[in-house]
Every structure is written in C-alpha cells, then in structure tokens.
C-alpha cells in the first residue's frame, strides 16, 4: 500500500522508492501524505464494496437464481453496506479534508499531526479486522444496521433468530467498527481544533471556503454522533462476550434500545457522508462558473441548520416499529423541515451557474450530475418522511433506490468532481479530460440505469434484504435492467482507474493553478511542499487568491502591508528554515497493538488481549509525553 501511495503522491518530486520510502509512509505525520493514504486505502475498500454489490446484482438478475448461496448473500449484503459507508465514502472524504483543509485555511499542518496519523492507522486497522472475517470464520450477516436481537443470536420458541450470529462474524463487526470509529472520532476532534485555531491572518469565519465550513460541521457531527454508536457497540460486545442481555428481551433487555442508539448515530452519519460533498461542490461550481458563490452567508447558515436538525430526525427510520402517531408526526415534521435548508443550497448552486461563463470540465459535469441525482434522492426522501407512505416503502426496494441516490448519486458524484478538481494539486499531473468524459457518462448512465428501476421494483412490492424472488411476481425485467446498469457503472470505474494510472505516468503537468482557482491551495506548487506555505498568507477576501489576481499585487500578501508582514515573518523565522514535526512510528505501533487486541478478543484469547492493550497504552503514553523537537526544512526557491 505504501509503495502505491508513493506513486500517487510523490513521483513528481522524485522521492526515493527504497525501503526507507516505505518507512517514511509508515512514520509520516504530514497531513498531505496522510490524506493520500486515506484516499488510496478507501479506494481499495471501495473496489471491494463494489465487487460485493456486483455479486449481489448477479444473484438478483433473474428469478430463482443460485449465483451465490443465501447465507453468502446475507454476508455480501452486510459487508457491502459497511464497506461503502465506513471504509470507502467517509474516509475518502476524510482524505480530501486531510489534504486540503490546512491549505485552504493557510496553515502549515493540522493542530495535532501525530493524532492525525493515529486516526488513519486506527481506521485502516478497523477496516482490515472487519474484512479479515471473510477468511476467519465468515463475515457478519445481519445487515449494516445489525439489528437486535438478531445480532445476539437470541432464541425464540426454540429457534435461533440468526444462526449465523453463532459464528464470529458479528464479533468482527463489533470490534472492527470500534477501531475504525475511534480513528474517525479522533480525526473529527483534530479538525475542529485545526479550523478554529490555525486559520491564516484575515481568515475570519465568514471568509472560510465552503469546503472548510462543511469539514468543520462534519467534524462536529462526528464528535457528537459517534459516542452513541460506540456505546451501542460496547453493550453488544459485552452481551456477546460475557453473556449479558442488554438487547435480548428474553433476558430483560430491549431490542429497540439498539435501534434508538443506532439511528441517533445513523441519521447524522448520512450527513457525515454528504456534508463534505456539499463543500466540494461549493468549490467546484464557482471555479468553473467563473463567479463567486451565490449567497455565501445563506449557504453557511443552511449547513449549520442541517447539522443541528440531523440529530432531530432519527426516528423516521423507525416509523414502522410502533412508536405511535404523536412521535411519528413529530419526526415526520422535522424530516420534512430539513428539506428547506437543503433546498437553499440547491438554488444557490444553480444561481451561481446562472449567467456564469461555465467551463464543462469533467469536474463540472460531475458537479451538475450531483445536483440532479441528489434532488431525485431528496424528493424520494420527503416521500419516506410521510409515516403512512413509509409503511409501504420502508422494507421495499424504493428505499434502496433512495439511499443510493443520496449516497452514490450524491456523495460519490461529488467525490469524482473533487478527484478531477484536486488530484492535479495532489499529484502534480492533470487527469485526461477525454477519458474523464468517458468516465463521467459511463458512471452517470450506469448509475441511473442501476438504481432508478429500483423505484419501480419497490412500488411493485419487491422487499429489500432478499436473496431471490419467484418468477410469477413479474420483477425479473427491472432486475435485469438494474444489473445491466451495474456493468455500465463498472466500466466507468475501470476507465477512471485507467485514467489515474495514465495520469501518474504520462499526465500533463498541472502547474500551481490549472483551473484559474479562487482559493489559497492554488497559490502553491503542485505537488505541495512539506511545509505548505513558505510565507503564511494574509487573507482579505472570501476568494483570497482570485482577489489578489484582480485587485492586489498578484501575491497573497496585500501590497500595503507586505513589508510589515515580511518583517514579522522574518522576526519569527528560524535561520535553519521552516519548522515541521518529526515523523514517528508510535501511531502505527498503537494501531498494531490494538489490532492484536482485537483478534485476541474475537477469539477469546484473553491473556494476549491484555498484553495487546498494555502495549497500546504504553505506546499512547509515549505518544502523549514524548517531546517532539521537530526539524527544519528550507523553502524552495521562489516559494511563498
């Protein structure tokens, strides 16, 4: 993995590709390299999740098919959801946040570089533990939501609710997601502190780029949403490993406790996935419309309102469990109300494009596709917010279509837009636009051919979470169409991967500002040097770089205060150069020790689990109290 990441992030800079280069990736605390590691590893997990979906669609292509067994289908269904949500889309967004946010706010690094490295290695450890279940006794099989009491293997009238829960698959779910979740929680804390405390002079809150606002709000949602889910996982772990009954009604527990705690996290999680996408689109559309973002203040307010309301709608996932008309009505009202700030953003993006000199690059095509697909997903979401209608839609393929239009048509389209927009800054080379258009049209057509027919399947009564269906229900045609769409979508992903490979080897050099950008990252070389900014910029506009191009002296330091700022920088400078933190192996050691603990707990080898915990605590203690003197690097000639 490290060697491949080296190719993605550093070929243009000519780094050594020997074993020392691998060691440098294992020990790095540079936010840009950590961002690259997130992007690369999440792409690998995305391909695994896509393969799982491909096998499921082959199974459902025709009635009464036997491509995979029903037991394997349940595992594929569970792991596809877990992989795409926790290991692909969310960490892919975190990768762009890691790389871009310090550049966008004019900082030289994140607030806690070592904690940032620990966040990545814990995420990777959790993902590897979860996926190792395929080789070590079977993957989890109770769905990504893992409802109780199915997840506990409870027995009703002498029959196990889920015989597969007697295997270790659910334990891999519990431990793997705890590891990955701790990493995500630490990352959220880190970026809240970074954005609040490390902005460049003049970068006031109402001058922050929208992607930074979205990243800050995403991080705050993470900080408040992940603890309930972590509590849920800990309670389930105690149930399974020590025989308690928090979620087993036969032993005095409450199965709905799992659902309540899960969806208190689960609905904000939807916005953890989509909020960075809002920010990405809000950077791409102004750049390629050659206009400032329309209604900046209202966009910020809309993001804040959405984040607040995301914690007030979770029970619309539970309309069918019998909470009663009063509770259902309250959550129906809040679920419909959250569409208002969402609509504000849609109109603002359209208004930004209106009258602009639009360049339909591949990135811009994906941004427009995001709006189209997300509006469709939002419309079906409002339908699902009506309790009587939800009784019909809830367990049907209509809901499957809705969630994929939000998370694939929404988040994934935005991630493609961000890739074509920001990868030239990361790699130093442009992606091929002709291949990009092939990639876009195959993905856009394939996505809609795959998921739009699922609306019809749901309305025709096809239940979700089923491995097959009888021929006499008349569902075969639209299932066949949906599976054909998967082949088209897969071809689009293959074109994108080829474009990445071609760009790394033969792509046109990007230069510092290939898009005539508006924000601070486009003032830097591509790829960005270790220290980011040789001179911390002074910001005097919401589009700081564009403003200096048009109204300033072409530099990010306004002419009238450039001399004073230069004197201040000189006074604080060290003769040896710019101070950056030292690399360390300790975050990797913590992750390895906790991985050992995880496997030992899953297989009930308690002495080894205790040793792993002790090793992790020792490494964390060293990480907290070991003073890092850092080192100094010389800025490149002409850098600023």
Summed up, what is this model?
The protein has 640 residues and is an all-alpha fold.
| Beta-strand content estimate | under 5%
Q: How would you describe the shape?
A: globular
Write down the secondary-structure element order: HHHHHEEHHHHHHHHHHHHHEHHE
Poorly predicted regions are 8-16, 558-565
Strand order of the largest sheet: 1-2
The counted number of beta strands is 4
Task: Explain the overall architecture.
Helices cover 65% and strands 2% of the residues. Helix 1 (2-10) packs across helix 3 (31-60) and helix 6 (169-197) runs antiparallel to helix 19 (586-602). It has helices at residues 2-10, 19-27, 31-60, 70-104, 113-131, 169-197, 210-242, 255-289, 296-309, 325-337, 339-353, 362-384, 387-393, 397-427, 433-459, 476-506, 544-550, 559-572, 586-602, 606-625; strands spanning 155-156, 159-160, 578-580, 631-633. With 640 residues, the chain is mostly helical. Strands 1-2 form a two-stranded antiparallel ribbon. Strands 3-4 form a two-stranded antiparallel ribbon. It has 20 helices and 4 strands.
Describe the protein's topology.
Blueprint: H1 2-10, H2 19-27, H3 31-60, H4 70-104, H5 113-131, E1 155-156, E2 159-160, H6 169-197, H7 210-242, H8 255-289, H9 296-309, H10 325-337, H11 339-353, H12 362-384, H13 387-393, H14 397-427, H15 433-459, H16 476-506, H17 544-550, H18 559-572, E3 578-580, H19 586-602, H20 606-625, E4 631-633
Antiparallel strand pairs: 1-2, 3-4
Helix pairs in contact: 1-2, 1-3, 3-4, 3-5, 3-16, 4-5, 4-6, 4-8, 4-14, 5-6, 5-19, 6-7, 6-19, 7-8, 7-9, 8-11, 8-12, 8-14, 9-11, 12-14, 12-15, 14-15, 15-16, 19-20
């Amino acid at each position: 993995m490290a060697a491949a990441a080296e190719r993605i992030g550093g070929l243009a800079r000519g780094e050594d590709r020997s074993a020392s280069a691998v060691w440098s990736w294992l020990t790095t605390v540079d936010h840009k390299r950590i961002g690259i590691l997130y992007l690369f590893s999440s792409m690998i997990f995305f391909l695994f999740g896509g393969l799982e979906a491909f096998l499921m669609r082959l199974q459902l292509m025709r009635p009464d098919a036997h491509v995979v067994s029903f037991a394997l289908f349940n595992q594929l269904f569970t792991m596809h959801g877990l992989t795409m949500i926790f290991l692909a889309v969310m960490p892919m967004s975190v990768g762009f946040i890691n790389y871009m946010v310090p550049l966008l706010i004019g900082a030289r690094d994140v607030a806690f570089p070592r904690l940032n490295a620990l966040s990545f290695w814990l995420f990777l450890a959790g993902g590897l533990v979860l996926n190792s279940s395929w080789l070590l006794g079977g993957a989890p099989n109770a769905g990504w939501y893992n409802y109780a009491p199915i997840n506990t293997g409870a027995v009703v009238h002498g029959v196990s609710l889920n015989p597969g829960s007697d295997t270790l698959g659910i334990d891999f779910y519990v431990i793997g997601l705890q590891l990955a979740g701790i990493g995500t929680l630490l990352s959220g804390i880190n970026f809240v502190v970074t954005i609040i405390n490390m902005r460049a002079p003049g970068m006031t809150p109402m001058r922050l780029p929208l992607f930074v606002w979205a990243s800050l709000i995403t991080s705050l949602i993470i900080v408040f949403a992940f603890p309930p889910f972590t509590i849920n996982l800990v309670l389930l772990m105690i149930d399974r490993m020590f025989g308690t009954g928090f979620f087993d009604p036969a032993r005095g527990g409450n199965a709905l406790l799992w659902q309540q705690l899960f969806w208190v996290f689960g609905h904000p999680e939807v916005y953890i996935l989509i909020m960075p996408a809002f920010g990405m689109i809000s950077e791409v559309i102004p750049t390629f419309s050659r206009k400032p973002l329309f209604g900046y203040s209202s966009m910020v307010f809309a993001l804040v309102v959405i984040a607040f309301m995301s914690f007030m709608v979770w029970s619309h996932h539970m309309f069918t469990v019998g909470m009663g008309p009063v509770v259902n009505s309250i959550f129906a009202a809040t679920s419909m109300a959250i569409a208002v700030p969402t609509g504000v953003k849609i109109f603002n993006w359209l208004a930004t494009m209106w009258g602009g000199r639009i360049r339909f690059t591949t990135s811009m095509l994906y941004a427009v596709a995001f709006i189209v697909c997300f509006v469709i997903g939002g419309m079906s979401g409002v339908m699902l917010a009506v309790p009587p209608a939800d009784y019909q839609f809830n367990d049907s393929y209509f809901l499957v279509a809705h969630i994929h239009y939000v998370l694939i048509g929404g988040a994934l389209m935005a991630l493609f837009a961000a890739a074509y927009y920001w990868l030239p800054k990361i790699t130093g080379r442009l992606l091929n636009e002709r291949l990009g258009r092939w990639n876009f049209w195959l993905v856009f057509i394939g996505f809609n051919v795959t998921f739009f027919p699922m609306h019809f399947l749901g309305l025709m009564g096809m239940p979700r979470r089923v491995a097959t269906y009888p021929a006499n229900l008349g569902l075969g045609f639209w299932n066949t169409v949906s599976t054909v769409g998967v082949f088209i979508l897969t071809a689009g992903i293959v074109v994108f991967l080829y474009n990445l490979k071609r760009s790394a080897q033969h792509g046109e050099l990007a230069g510092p500002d290939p898009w005539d950008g508006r924000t601070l990252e486009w003032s830097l070389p591509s790829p960005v040097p270790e220290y980011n900014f040789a001179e911390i910029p002074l910001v005097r506009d919401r589009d700081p770089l564009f403003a200096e191009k048009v109204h300033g002296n072409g530099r990010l330091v306004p002419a009238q205060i450039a001399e004073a700022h230069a004197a201040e920088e000189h006074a604080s400078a060290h003769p040896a150069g710019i101070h950056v933190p030292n690399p360390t192996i300790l975050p990797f050691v913590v992750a390895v020790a906790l991985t050992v603990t995880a496997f030992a707990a899953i297989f009930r080898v308690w002495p080894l689990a205790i040793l792993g915990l002790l090793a992790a605590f020792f490494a964390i203690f060293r990480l907290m109290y070991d003073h890092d003197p850092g080192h100094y690097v010389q800025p490149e000639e002409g850098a600023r």
